[in-house]
Design a protein that fits this description.
It is built from 13 helices and two strands, in the order E-H-H-H-H-H-H-H-H-H-H-H-H-H-E. By secondary structure, it is an all-alpha fold. Among the domains are: 144 residues, Four Helix Bundle (Hemerythrin (Met), subunit A) (Up-down Bundle), CATH 1.20.120; 133 residues. It has a two-stranded parallel ribbon with strand order 1-2. Helix 2 runs antiparallel to helix 3. The longest helix has 55 residues. The protein is elongated. The two termini are 19 Å apart.
């Protein structure tokens, strides 16, 4: 039967599991540690005796060998008593840390012995034998603790503890993102209300007669521009080809010609009808002479436009356009004078800002949703992994729920 565990209670469950599984092992660790401390004290005591023997053998050892021997005993006494003086708990983590320290100290003693003992061995055989014997016991006790640590479930339980911490962090992160998205949702709703209020205010403003007059002028201006562009469209391509044939001594103003090609509306409003007619008549001559390589049907349409312009259609369009443009400017000036134009511009800016902020909030919200989805998948896998590890360690089948 499955045991259901709340995610918030998983760490406590792991602590209990660790205590139950490790209590017998930790008693064993404690005994192994005591053996190491006894062995380290023994080797320090042997070093005391060796130290005395070296001092008493001054007639049998040269000065250099004697000094080296005393350095050896000093190293062994310091490191051995450092190890024997450790006060630690016998839990897995502390025991593993103690074992690592013990290995380092043992290696230091071994290196010192290898360096200095060969010169002392001939004179102090008994003392050196005692030193090697206690070193062997120290190494054996350290290895025994290492084996006990490896045979215990301590490392697996440490891994379980780490994975649980990772799971809790990811769950906390997902929760924070969910809370943040709830806050963002409220901000988006407020932003939507702000946008509606601004639009209502703008619609009321634009419904005033002054804006209606401006809108009517702008619509008429747009319609007139379309008529001008439609009128001149058949000569757009012929004009571009004509532009390529101009020579440096041509009487045609290239600036006016370029503007007529690129922006017919601006050209007609900016330059006189005579200046434009001069260009159109020169174009007509080029078409009649067949210089531009325009097919017959398009040539006839282009010449029809030129004929219409010469009949006054271009001047008519120009006069109408300038009149509407002037009316538009007058309507705008009235709005500026009574502050309505600036008020509308401010509303436009506020609307742009509000919409931009709303889009940024939505982008952040979507990004958070993707992160939450990814975290949810990871959390689900992490739960399954932890459930499997607990089953292997304890034989207990559990289910972790939020």
């Amino acid at each position: 039967m499955d045991t259901t565990i709340q995610l918030s209670e998983l760490a406590t469950f792991n602590d209990t599991l660790t205590h139950d599984l490790m209590k017998n092992y930790e008693k064993n660790f404690g005994e192994k540690i005591k053996n190491i401390k006894r062995s380290s004290e023994d080797i320090a005591n042997v070093a005391d005796r060796l130290d005395l023997a070296i001092k008493n053998a001054w007639g049998s050892l040269d000065k250099t060998t004697s000094e080296q021997g005393l350095r050896l005993t000093q190293t062994i006494k310091e490191t051995g008593r450092k190890l024997s003086g450790y006060e630690i708990e016998s839990n897995y983590a502390k025991s593993e840390e103690f074992h690592k320290t013990a290995v380092e100290i043992s290696n230091k003693i071994i290196l010192s012995i290898r360096k200095y003992v060969p010169k002392l061995h001939k004179v102090l055989k008994t003392d050196i034998a005692a030193l090697n014997s206690t070193l062997t016991k120290l190494e054996s006790s350290i290895n025994s603790l290492g084996i006990a640590l490896d045979d215990s479930p301590g490392r697996a339980l440490e891994t379980l503890e780490l994975e649980t911490k990772v799971l809790l962090v990811k769950k906390s992160t997902a929760k924070e993102l969910e809370i943040r998205n709830q806050e963002i949702e409220q901000s988006i709703l407020q932003s939507t209300k702000d946008e509606e209020n601004l639009l209502n205010e703008q619609n009321q403003l634009l419904s005033r007669e002054e804006f209606l007059i401006l809108q009517k002028c702008e619509n008429s201006l747009k319609s007139e521009i379309e008529k001008i562009e439609q009128l001149l469209q058949p000569i757009a391509k012929p004009l571009r080809k004509f532009e390529r044939t101009l020579t440096e001594d041509s009487p045609i103003d290239p600036n006016i010609l370029e503007k007529l090609i690129e922006n017919p509306k601006e050209a007609i409003s900016k330059y006189s009808t005579q200046s434009i007619s001069r260009i159109l008549n020169s174009l007509n001559d080029a078409l009649n002479q067949g210089k531009l390589g325009i097919e017959e049907r398009k040539r006839r349409k282009a010449q029809e436009v030129i004929e219409a312009a010469n009949r006054g259609e271009l001047e008519k369009r120009r006069t109408t356009f300038l009149s509407i443009q002037n009316n538009t400017q007058t309507a705008t000036d009235i709005l500026i004078a009574n502050g309505l134009f600036d008020k509308n511009e401010r509303l436009k800016q506020l609307l742009t800002k509000t919409r931009s902020e709303s889009e940024q909030l939505k982008t952040t919200q979507n990004s958070n949703r993707k992160k939450i989805e990814e975290l949810t998948k990871v959390i689900s896998k992490q739960k399954a992994l932890i459930e499997s590890e607990i089953l292997k360690l304890s034989g207990r089948k559990i289910s972790i729920i939020d």
